[in-house]
Structure formats: C-alpha cells, structure tokens
Design a protein that fits this description.
270 residues; 4-stranded antiparallel sheet
Length: 270
C-alpha cells in the first residue's frame, strides 16, 4: 500500500459503541425480480450507531439487497421496516427524503452520470429539495456551494464544481458520492462495495467517514466482499449465500477462517 500511494497508510477501525434503537430491519423478506427469487426469507436489523456487515462472494444477492434497502425493489412477501414503520411505498426519492444515504455498488453505472458536472451529480438525488430548487428551476448557486463544501470536507481532488465528474479518479468520484450523502447527516447509510477498485489512500479516507457516520448515530449497512473491510468496520456480520442470510455473529468472533465458512454456506461449522 505504501508503494502504491507514496506514503504509509493504515486503515482506521471501529471504536466500541453502544447501539441505540433499531432503524432498519427486514422481517422474513423475499424479493422476486424478473420472475426469479433473488432474496429469500431475509432477517436482519441495524441499530443507530452500529454497522452491520454483509459479507459474501459476488453474485449471491448483494445487488438485490442493495436495491431493496434503497427503495428500488420491494418484497414479494415479508416486510422492510424503517424507523419503526413498515415500508409501504418503495420510492428511492422518498427513502432519501426520510434520511437514507446510499453508496451504490457501481459508482459509474448507478452513482454518477459521467457527462454531468460535479455540482449536478452532488444534488442528483435531491434536485427537488427546497434547498436546491423552487420547483421549476435549480438553484445553481446553492448547488455549487453544497458541492464546494463536499470538495473541502471530503478532500475531493481533480476538479471544481463545474468539472465533468468523469474526469475524476475513481477514489475522488467515490468521495463525492459519499460526501453528498453524509453532508446531509443520514440516519441510515447503505454502503455497497464502497471501496471496490480504490487505492489504499482512498480506502482509508472512506473508511474513516463511514466510522464517523456510525459515531454520529447512523445505522450503517455495509455490503462488501472485502474481509478486511468487514472485520475492521462491522459490529456484527451476516453472510449472504444464494440470496439467504446467515445468523449474525459479533465482530469479536469474526476472523477470516470463520467468515470463509459462512461465505461457503457452512453456517453450522462457522
């Protein structure tokens, strides 16, 4: 890592915390998309000030889980509960308005529009908010000010609010996506593969911000294939295998060997 980024880099890790109330919960939720069952009988909960890590080999339902908790799909049976209320309307814009922040799995396909500017991408999910719009026109000054704040607070390098976002490196694009969510202090943060393909410097910066959100009381759902990321950030861990979730284990019990067994579906041996 030191050779790649030119300096010594250490990943931050979680401090002890006392979780609060449950903010996000799935109760026996099954998701069917395009006629195929993607998720089966999901049970999990995430509390305020806590990170639940979902570990798994790629292609086992992580993307479908991300869509469910972002309001892009809904359960065919069972429930998704947010802030103590069963969700009846699955609408991504409404989820954002209620306090859900989302780092999507694919930053290029789902998180940003390459030919739009940084400021346009920064307000992409909130363009109808009163802060940025009067209902007819976008308040560009407010949007640029918001973007400037993200650039400074999250150390986004390589562009100005008026630069095309496709000109940024992957790490800086991811920091902008993270910043547009965390600047609004979400109560729930969905982080799907948040550091995939990034250098160690960007990984450490993003981990620090995820831990900061947890420390401020956010319920963090971390979906990742990176064992070190899960072990370093999560308070509890569940494995996803063929669209099903294992029983949870506490972070103190999580190690590479045990998580490997869980990812293989050997839950009785883990």
């Amino acid at each position: 890592a030191e050779l790649m980024v030119g300096r010594r880099v250490s990943r931050p890790s979680r401090a002890a915390s006392t979780p609060g109330e449950t903010l996000l919960e799935a109760r026996n939720a099954t998701v069917v998309e395009d006629g195929a069952t993607r998720l089966s009988d999901l049970d999990f909960h995430v509390r305020a000030g806590e990170t639940l890590g979902i570990i798994g080999v790629s292609g086992n339902g992580q993307a479908a889980l991300g869509r469910l908790v972002s309001g892009l799909s809904q359960p065919a049976s069972g429930e998704l509960v947010m802030f103590g209320q069963t969700v009846t309307k699955f609408d991504p814009r409404q989820f954002v308005a209620q306090g859900v922040g989302r780092i999507p799995e694919d930053r290029n396909a789902e998180g940003a529009i390459g030919d739009l500017t940084l400021w346009e991408n920064a307000v992409l999910e909130r363009v109808r908010d009163r802060q940025f719009s009067n209902g007819l026109l976008v308040n560009r000054a407010a949007a640029r000010e918001f973007t400037d704040r993200i650039i400074k607070d999250f150390d986004v390098r390589g562009g100005t609010p008026d630069s095309r976002i496709r000109l940024l490196s992957g790490g800086n694009m991811q920091k902008l996506i993270l910043g547009r969510n965390l600047e609004t202090a979400p109560r729930i943060l969905i982080a799907a593969q948040p550091t995939r393909g990034l250098d160690e410097g960007a990984v450490a910066a993003i981990h620090a911000r995820i831990l900061e959100a947890r420390a401020k009381g956010a319920a963090v759902l971390l979906i990742s294939e990176d064992l070190d990321e899960i072990i370093g950030l999560a308070d509890r861990v569940q494995a996803i295998v063929k669209g099903r979730l294992s029983p949870p284990i506490d972070a103190g019990e999580a190690n590479a060997q045990r998580l490997g067994l869980m990812m293989a579906g050997e839950w009785g041996k883990a």
